[in-house]
Structures are given as C-alpha cells and as structure tokens.
Amino acid sequence: MARLPRAGGLGALLGALAIAATARGEAAPEVDDPAAASNRSRPPAVPNDPVSIAGIEETDFDPSDVGLGIASGVLFVPRNVIDYAFRGADLAATLVNDRQLVPRYRDLFSTPSARLYVFPTLFAETDAPVSVGLRMIFDSRRIGASQRVGFGGLNQVEAETRLVLKGKLAELPAVLSLESYYELVDNRRYYGIGLVPRSDLRNRFVDGTPYEFGYYTERRVRHLASGGLRLSENIELLMSTSLYRRQLETTATRGAEAVTAVFEPGTIPGLSTANPYLVYSEVAARFDSRRIRTRPSPGWLFETYVGGAHPLGGADLAYMRLGARAGFAKPVMRQSNLFALRFTVDGVTPAPGSELPFVELEHQTEYRGFDTRRDYLAMLSSADYTWLLAPALGMRFFADALTVAPSLRSFGAEQLQNMRLALGIGLDAFSGENTLASMVLGVSGDGVRFVATFGAPATHGDRQHRK
Amino acid sequence: MTTINHDARDWISASRPRGSAPRPSLRAGLLGVAALLVAPACGYRPPRFVDAPPALRVDDMTPVPVPAHRTLLAPLNDANIYVRRELVRAMDPRRAGDAGDVNALDGVPESSWFHRLPVFDKPLLGYRRDGAPVQPLIESKDAPVSGLPGARVFVDARGLRFELVPDDAERPGMRIGAMAATSRLLFALGYRTDEVNVVEHAGSRFAATRWPVGIDLGPTPQDRPRRDDPNDRLDHRDRRSLRAFKLAAAWLDIVHVPPRCLRDHYVGEPGKGHVEHAFVGIDGGLGVDRYQERLAWQRDPERSDDNLFLRMVSLGLSPVPAASPPGTPFPSVGLLEDHLLVGSFKPSPPFEPIDRLTPGDAYWMAKRIATVPPRVFQRAAFSSRMPNDAQRWLARTLEERRAAVVAWGYDRVSPLEAGFLHAADPTRGRGPRFQLVDLAVMSGMTSSATSRYDVRYLDADGAALGFARAVVPVGAVVTLELPASVVSRERVVVRVTALRAGVPLPRAAEFHLVRRPSGFAVVGVRH
C-alpha cells in the first residue's frame, strides 16, 4: 500500500514540478561525487518477475480486445512461421558463436579476418508452397564456404554445400569451387515441348484430358567443380565440370493431373528414374563491367559458352550446348535510374542417336512470366527500368519476350507470332550492396505471377546453377 | 460481473442434462466458444492490485556467470528489423499490452536497465564513474568494442581504458560535444549510459568514452531477453524505458539508433557480477546526424526530392531540387530545430520496442522529461565545451523542444496524478475527498478554464457505482468528493477522463483505492 503525500507532500510535489518548469541555473562543472552516489540508501528489491513488479494479482479484461484476439488467432500460423524462420536463423548464428565454430573455421583455414553470416531465406511464388530455409556463408580472404537448406514440405527439399578457394594463378586472380547439391521436388510441371504444345506434333496429349500440363517429381543430385580466372578487371574465364543425375517420375498423388495421365505414357522423353549419371563440362567467357553484381548497376555484360555432356556407364545419351548473353544498363538522368536491355539465346544439340530427356531442353528461368516452354532453342529479350523510391528501396518496370524453337533453321514467323510476353512491376529492398528482399508481379498470357523472396540473395548466377 | 470463464461455465452447466458430463475436449471447446460469444457482451473489468507497497527496485542484479559476447550480424539484423518485424507486426492486430516493468503506481523501478530516480537537486548524481581520462594517454593496439565509428582505444595514467573519437574538422566541437551532452541528458532521464568527456590530446579535441566498464557483451537484443543471463526475464519490447525511448529520442533529436548503441556489459568480478544495459556511443544526437545528412544531400549532384510519391510517379526523373547548405546559428551545433512533430518521429533503423509504445508509456516518459531541471541542460551544454553563446542557445533550444515533447505525451492520456486523500471530517459535515493534479494545467500547457473531468466510480469487478459526475477544477487541482456509495466499499476504482474544451482525451486515468481504518489509500495507478 502506498500512502500519498499529505498536504506538505503535495506542496513538495507541486513545488518540485513548478521548479522543474521554471528554474534556471548557471553552467557549472561536474561536481557529482561517485562516492555520494553509492552512499544513497536503496529501497528493498522485489523479485524479478512482472507480477511482483506490477503488484497486480488479477489482470484486467477489456471486451474490445476479444475481436482483435480472434483476428490474431487466425493469423497465428503464418505469423509464427515467419517469426520462427528468422528466429531460427538467429539461434543458429548464436549457436555458431557459442560453439566456437568461427574460431574453428579460422584455425582450420588460418584466416583470422574471416566473417561468417547466417541468413534466413523465404521464397514464395504463385501456386507453389512457401519455402523457408537457412543459408550460412563463411567468407575469408582465401576461403569461402556455404551451406544452404530449404524446406517447403516433405517433398520440397534442397540442400547444398560449397567450398570456394580463392587465390592467384600466374599472377591472375583465380577461384576454384567444389560443391554438392541435392534437390527433391514433387510439383514440377511438364507442358510438353515447343512453343504451342497442343499443336506441336511431338506431344501426344491423352484424349479428352482437360489439362495443359502434368505434374512430375524430380530428384536431382549434382557434384560440381568449377574454376574461374579473372583475366582483367572485367573479363573472366570460367570452366566447370559436373557429375549429375536427374531422376524423373510421375507424381502419382496428383491423379488425373499426373504427367502420365495428361500425356500418353511412353511419349514423354526421359521420364525415368533410370536416367544415367552425366558428366557435363563447360567453358565460358564473360565480360562484365557492372560495379555491383548483386543489385542493379550500370555496365555492360557479354557472355558466351560451349559445353558437352557424356554419360557414365555406356548409356546412349550425349549432347552439346552453345549460347550467349548480352546486355547493358545505362543511367538515365541519375546514376540510380537505370535502363537495361538483355538478350539471351541458349541451344542444345543431342548427339546422333540420343534422345534428350525433356529436362535437358532449353528454357529461360529468367523469364518473369511462367517459364513453361522448352525446346532445343530458347531466346529471351528483356527490358527493365529501375529507379529509387527511397535510399534502400528500388522500383522497376519490366517487359520480357520469350520464344522457343526446334532449331535455328526452323525459327520463323510462328516464333514471333506466338512469342510469350510478360509485363510487370517489382520492388527491391537493398542493404548495402545486397538485395535484401524482392517482390515481382508479372502479367502474361498465362496469368499473374507473383514472386517474393526474402533473405540473402542467391549468388549463383552462372548457367550450371540456373539449370 | 464475475469472470468470463465463470459465466460461461454456469451457462453450460445450466443447459446440460442432469447426470451427464461433457467430454473434456468438448467441454473445453464449448467453454472457449461460449467465452468468445459472451465476452463482447461483458464490460470492462479493472486489474486488481495487491495491497502492498509499490516496487521501487527490482532484484535483477544477482550474481550470474559472465554471458557470452553477442556478435551482431548486420545482414541478419537488417533482415530481422526490416523484414521479420514488419511482417509479424502486420499480421498481429492485437494492441500492445502494458509494459512488464511498471510498478503499481505506474512508474518504472530501479533495475539493471534504469538507474535510481535522480535526486532532484543533483540530477546527474552517479553519472561520473571515473571522470575524464588522466594524462598521459597511451594508444592501445586493442580494437574498440563500442562500435563507435572512428574510435581509437587509449589507456590513461590510471590504467583505465577509454575510446576516443576525433572531432570533425569541418565542424569543430559539433560531434564530440553532442556525444557528451546527449549522454548526460539520457542519464538525467534515468537511462544507464556511458560516461563521455571532451578532452584534449596531442593538440586535438576528442570525445573520450569510458568503455567498457567491466566486460562488453555486445549489442542488447531489441526483441527478446538474453538466453544466457538468468536476470534477463522480460521481453525487451515490453520494457517501458525502451518503448518510451521514442520521446527521449525525439527530444534529443537522435534520428539514428543503430543496434550498437544499446549494449550489455558485465559489471563486477566474473561469477560475482551482473549484466547492465546502457546506451553507448550515441554520436548523432542534438541534430548532428540531421546536419550531416542534409549536407551530404546538398552536396549530391543527383539528389532527388524526399517525397516518395513524387519519386514514384516521376520514375526518378524529377528535376534536381534546389538545396542550400544547412544553416545553424553556430558551427559547433547540429541542425537542431526548436519545433518538432513527436508523433511522426521514428528513429532509423527502427528501434523495435518503440513499436509497442502505449499512451501510458508516453505519458510516463513525458513526466520524466518534464522533471529534468533546466540546469541539467546547462551542465550538459557545458560538458560539450562549446563556446558560451552556443551553450546558451543549446540549453534554450532543448527547453523549447522539451515543451513540445511533454505536451505530446500529456495529450496521450488524462495527465492526472494522485494528490491528497482527505479523510471524512464529520465536524464540518464533509465526506472523504480525493485530490488530483492535472500536470498539463499545472505546467501551463492548457487552461483550467477549458478543462472538465468526467469521473466514474467502479467496484472491483468493474460495475459502476452510481452515475458519472462532471467535476470543475480549481487551478490544476481536481477535488473529488467521494460519494456515500463509494465510501462503504473495500475497493474502489476511480476513472477520470479529462476533457479539453469539451473533447475527451484519449485515455482515462485510473486510481485504485483500498479502504483503511483511517480512510482510503491508493494502491494502484494506470494511465
């Protein structure tokens, strides 16, 4: 119980507040004595819990809070999924610190200036489960390492580990990367081959099926070694060799939407769990004059590559790839306003007698409509205009045009008439030189596609990772 | 009214056939549904305060092992603050509850977060720990731990460690002076802070920060307790002193509060000490950051308008706006304006506890700011070693900004404080009276002539005791004649809503009285 001040106390209270409002003193040096401070009498302490501090034995109840509580309950699951994804990353970072993982890395690689980052990741896309994950990156002057896991359900799993060695080769900056990757995805869609699958004679839809695509499951394993040599500040030579396997099967749980219920069984190239391991080697040259590569930045980009695949174990499957990419971004009035154009062409040619699994056909993952078309040749043209809304927030308009063809020779008016277009708008949040979050809304003939990514950006920009 | 669960249980029991018992799960479900249905129909039930003295000190400084140093991962923190926090907030429509470190009389007790209430005539008592560094200063090879940009570590003649921040060559005295003054002003509000002194060394001026005191444990988590400190039990977003930092930051124009600025440190011998939490290295207050940003913007040849909508519709192609160099009356002071909009003031990056600021929290901090004696302003300005005329200007500007912040805080609630409880006086035929003081009227921010008070009496369950009454004040004092229906009660809740020119203020002040042989006593206050 607290007795309030009697009349004298009230006078003191009023006086104190009045003095506080009006009194003015002169500037004076510090005279407070630390000893005097420590000699002050201290009141008794209460236990360190909110109930003891507040002195409340029964909390209040406000009926207007009930409706808000119900609304909060409805949002409980999505709210906590997001909350715990981020808290999980924080916990992982704390554990990494507590377990002295950083010093162990440092000891192992003798890199005292190393930095370690742990990021939560969140990926959401129209008509796909939300995927949450964690990425850990260890970076030092000579060594880089990363681990990544993503989870979107029991049949939506991916994991990757990567080790990067940085150094010099003949006085030129060089990098060697070793990595392993595993992925299981059961909601992939197969639309058939060609620009207009329904009228393409290479596809055989089941009579009467109302569906334009069927679901399949892919299990993928890849081990990749890649090396890079920086010949000058903007010119890089990249070589990579991967050993990989892509096992494909129908998603039986989809019923009439399973790929074997939409397409005639036996007509889907490469739909098999017995697909062989392939060794794919590629060499690429790149000129990239952008100052920052993880967010929009002025500069030029040219890239060309050639690669070939051979099976292990004598299977009859081999192919070659050839392609190029060119683009530029130019400032408009301000350095932060960027107009960018990009053109990409990718082609694949099977060895005589080989039938390529449909997943090896070319398509364009960078198309911001629905990437549903695949063939032996795929071309993408993109135009972007980006400007800053706020220091860490950018906005963009974009237009993409995509077409595919069986070959360069067969490229004709049909490819232009049936070209697939996507227009859209995007928001990018930056932190320093990294993109922290991105939201893209693309409108195309297939519908509206919304993609949201939060967390650390993927640094995988080369072709082997995109495929 | 009794409790909601009790009502619901009675209703279910009455409708249940005799001899049958509902299955536990069904019963629980029915109870829940019934509670939801019945709840909106029920009225407000006030909290029940324990009949005990209010907590003035919290026992959160018991000896603990030294916790681990917390490393802040900047990308992770950015993702937390700008992505997680925004998404989770958007999906939680509930109002923030009362802070967890508030005592029965609506104050914040002393703890490892908030130091003892200052002595009125010595408001900076306890600020000085070791004083300014004693020459000669020897530079150490150790890395600074406070995170202060540009800091270097020195050891003084006593062997004490200081982090020295150099002066800004273009604006002599501005940054280092602001550091010294801001630190003292925050301390005067009750925050634990670092001790900062402006010193001369090797012909140059520096701000010398005495840090770490004990062992630096890194930035304090803004959104939750430390797992490795048993004394740290309350969600940091529910600490009133942190929630109400908005007002302190607005007053002192601290526009940037990077996570490094709130730090944990272990005080005492390892194993025998405890963790304290302090604001450290705030170097952009008193308009310094605002000046630097304005200058950078003015010097940017590609600057664009601040208006987000204009930027969006112009596609970033709006003309470069005209800009002149930021003007200040003295080169040693920042761009500190005498007027401010407190409601829209938001530090950057977002300081998470501020998201849960309640009107009661704002009012509490407004009171704290109002009671800082003006001579503290002068002493803070003196510590900055600015020229005398700049010191006087700074003290005057702080006074004007204080008026704006306090007025904003007082407008969030009915700014009434419990004054005096008069026992009944049968000789004069008077019943017991309860006197309140309206701080807004007392400080001259509003007039008693335009103020009225709506007074309601409730019993412990929230049921009304008689009709509401309108009371006219005498000056700043509001005298309530306790009616007979109230006097016989063991517990009474007095809810008073102030009206200014007939318009009620957003929240009532609530006083919880308990009857004693000699009259009533106040056991709880909420704003």
How far do the termini of chain A sit from each other? 72 Å
Mean residue pLDDT of chain A: 80
Quantity of strands of chain A, as a count: 18
Largest sheet features of chain A: 16 strands, antiparallel, barrel
Shape of chain A: globular
The share of residues in extended strands of chain A comes to: over 45%
**Uncertain regions of chain B: pLDDT < 50 for 5+ in a row?**
1-28, 36-41
Kindly state the percentage of residues in helix of chain A: 10-25%
Largest protein interface, residues of each chain: A-B, 101 and 109 residues
Total E-strand runs of chain B: 19
Number of helices of chain B: 13
Query: Quick one: overall form of chain B?
Result: globular
- Mean pLDDT value of chain B: 87
The low-confidence parts of chain A are 1-31, 108-112, 456-461
How large, in whole angstroms, is the Cα Rg of chain A?
30 Å
Order of helices and strands of chain A: HHEHEHHHEEEEEEEHEEEEEEHEEEH
Provide the β-strand percentage band of chain B. 15-25%
Describe the structure.
The complex is a heterodimer of chains A (467) and B (527). Chain A has 467 residues and is of the alpha+beta class. Chain A is built from nine helices and 18 strands. Chain A has a 16-stranded antiparallel β-barrel with strand order 3-4-5-6-7-8-9-10-11-12-13-14-15-16-17-18. Chain A is globular. With 527 residues, chain B is an alpha+beta fold. Chain B is 27% helix and 20% strand. Chain B is built from 13 helices and 19 strands. In chain B, strands 13, 14, 16, 17, 18 and 19 form a six-stranded antiparallel sheet that branches. In chain B, strand 16 and strand 17 (503-504) form a beta hairpin. Chain B is globular, with a radius of gyration of 27 Å. Chain B starts with a helix and ends with a strand. Residues 1-28 and 36-41 of chain B have low confidence and may be disordered. Classes of the chains: A alpha+beta (467), B alpha+beta (527). Chains A and B meet through helix 1, helix 2, strand 1, helix 3 and strand 2 of A and strand 1, strand 2, helix 3, helix 8 and helix 10 of B.
